[in-house]
Amino acid sequence: MIKVGVFGAHGRMGSEVVAAVQGADDTELVAGIDAADERDAVRGADVVVDFTHPDAVMDNLRWLIEQGIHAVVGTTGFDDAKLAELRGLLDAHPGAKVLIAPNFGVAAVLMMHFAKLAAPYFESTEIIELHHPNKADAPSGTASRTAELVAAARRDAGTPAMPDATTAEVPGARGADIDGVRVHALRITGLIAHQEIVFGTHGETLTIRHDSMNRASFMPGVLLGVREVAGLPDPLTIGLEPLLGLG
Ligand code: NAP
């Protein structure tokens, strides 16, 4: 049995994780905590799953790494500075492994993989991400990651810069520029988590769309992370791709 703790246990995602851990045959819940609770409650866990808040997750990870507890992280908002700090912490305290996945949905990971494959074949690529209005960060971690993957695939293939004649712009109208890829974030009541990647070249377009209908859709990916994190080759792994054999 893998002993699992959950940070953010009463949150929208954390409560699904608690149910998934309790429902699986090979995992056992040690404790689930929220902002006001003591982290000591998860001592004894092999793995802690964190779905908290971008402002809280680094402090949680510092503590877990110091305790030698593996972490499976869904919380978004990681930038280069935070990742560099994490690598430093993991070097200073060998033992714990950290898996950060901007998206635990297997279909979402496949969407990113397919986007990477398609990117070099199109002149233009833009991303539209659509989420519920309670989301704290914009654009989503998945959209940022997709933009980076598309940009890298275009660079590797020597694809020229995207055409864009915009010279007059209401600020924000063309979305955020992530590595040269425009990303547009919609916050709409009634939605959960959705994304479209629109590719275009002369006379044809291709749209790849992913829809997450409920938060339970993320749980097979979370449980995969819980099962695999201890055996990952590197102290820090970003994305579910290596666990799905996608490289
Ligand atoms: P949420 O409903 O607001 O839940 C967050 C929970 O974290 C709350 O229960 C909150 O407790 C708790 N919390 C805050 N600070 C904490 C701390 N220091 N220690 C322990 N618990 C703490 O948010 P959500 O919708 O579940 O989303 C959580 C995160 O997951 C966000 O960053 C979101 O973008 C991300 N997310 C990722 C994926 C993915 O596949 N990677 C999918 C969906 C969402 P209190 O209520 O007591 O403050």
Automatic annotation (TrEMBL):
Residues 2-104 form the Dihydrodipicolinate reductase N-terminal domain. (S)-2,3,4,5-tetrahydrodipicolinate binds at H132, G141, T142. Its EC number is 1.17.1.8. Residues 108-231 form the Dihydrodipicolinate reductase C-terminal domain. Pfam families: DapB_C, DapB_N. Keywords: Amino-acid biosynthesis, Cytoplasm, Diaminopimelate biosynthesis, Lysine biosynthesis, NAD, NADP, Oxidoreductase. Catalyzes the conversion of 4-hydroxy-tetrahydrodipicolinate (HTPA) to tetrahydrodipicolinate. This is 4-hydroxy-tetrahydrodipicolinate reductase. It comes from Nocardiopsis mangrovi.
